[in-house]
Amino acid sequence: MLRAHRYEVDVAANWKTVIDNNHECYHCDANHKSLLELVAYKATAKWKDSGITFCHTVSRGEQNNGAYAVDNSTIEQDALFGYIWPTTIPLMFPGSCSLALFHVIPLGPEKTRERWDFYFLSKDLRPQERALIDYCSKTLAPEDIALCEAVQRGLHSRGYTQGRFVADPEHVEYSEHHVQRSILPNGETAADFKKLMNHFRLEKDGRLLFGGRGGLWSSHDPRAYAPLLHALATIFPQLKDVPIEYFWSGKVAITADGSPHFHRPADNVWVATGCNGRGVGMCTAAGKLLAKLIGGMSDRESPMPINQLKELPFHRLRLLGAQAAVWYKSWQDRRDYRRTG
Q1: How far apart are CA 341 and CA 83, in angstroms?
Q2: 163 by DSSP, 3-state: which?
Q3: Is-above-0.85 flag for pTM?
């Protein structure tokens, strides 16, 4: 056979995205209507798979179809679609004796070149052979390219990222897709209204970050995380038996009135403290206020009072006091739950 034509086009997608698109035909009904008129894919496809290569033969479809006209009285071959690892795809279409070698050439993380080489018995092409080339280069390839580029854009969403892929046939309920569909499906960041608040969100890599009150005495004792694990299982019971990979904790600056405090302990010295576990937002705002104070804003102009530092009474008993406060607030939360539940 002689190579009669070469067609090349660049695709804004990773080469694996292009290969994956070739490996299935779930998209064919919506994306390749004319192809499914040309070949009787659903009724006659027969697969052979050796692990690194596969092929499937397909009988011809309608003589008059949306791809190109086929004369059943002179047809020389039906269809065969294959794959040779890693990036070569041989394609045989109904009509005269022909072969299209579709090469997937990686050019970068998000750029791939498709190279189509068309082989026939002669370089003097028949009308049907020219129609086959036109169909592949002007219809079939553009249909797949649009789909691959859309998928590549979707890979930048919160739904996909680099990381582990878990396939456990005995515990499919633990799979990322199964669990994530049931937890914050719209990517919300959430917190409850309890006295001992919990907060949670899905990270960019799909992990669930769940935070709240831990232990007061030792962050190294696994029992310190028991209240948090109980809250997690209460809010998301589907995660009750899913193993937790990482635990961490830190100190939280709590104030008696629940508001951040600003102090000037000496000339040209300012202190902002006591964000009560909400440091990301409050510290950003506090930093802007401190910059204005350093720049000359008077204490009277400050939207937050500038107070003197005071010694905390009974400081040595702070942990006992904090534990008593936790017990009391926990009792309030249980009481409120019974009232509303």
Answers
A1: 59
A2: coil
A3: no
